[in-house]
UniProtKB/TrEMBL annotation:
<dbReference type="InterPro" id="IPR021793">
    <property type="entry name" value="Oprl"/>
</dbReference>
<protein>
    <submittedName>
        <fullName>Lpp/OprI family alanine-zipper lipoprotein</fullName>
    </submittedName>
</protein>
<keyword id="KW-0449">Lipoprotein</keyword>
<feature type="signal peptide">
    <location>
        <begin position="1"/>
        <end position="19"/>
    </location>
</feature>
<feature type="compositionally biased region" description="Basic and acidic residues">
    <location>
        <begin position="75"/>
        <end position="93"/>
    </location>
</feature>
<keyword id="KW-0732">Signal</keyword>
<feature type="region of interest" description="Disordered">
    <location>
        <begin position="73"/>
        <end position="93"/>
    </location>
</feature>
<dbReference type="Pfam" id="PF11839">
    <property type="entry name" value="Alanine_zipper"/>
</dbReference>
Amino acid sequence: MRKLTIAGLALATVLTAGCATTDQGAVDEANATASSAESTAKNALSTANSAAGTARSAQQTAQEALAAAKAAQRAADEANERAKRMLERSSMK
């Protein structure tokens, strides 16, 4: 009976060790997956920040282009007014 008890304890120890090894493997794999996910998230955040910076720069360029277009429109309107006045004066003569 004593040998059977010792054999049972030995078997239980082996099974527990096997489960612990399997569990540790699962934990290691989960940690590796979490680490990979964290790295992917950091890369995504970096890409998003870069895209946001590019978008801000593009918006600034568009605003500057719009301001230049408005200034050009004002200059063209003024030139048209001057030309109109000159034509009116020349037709009176």
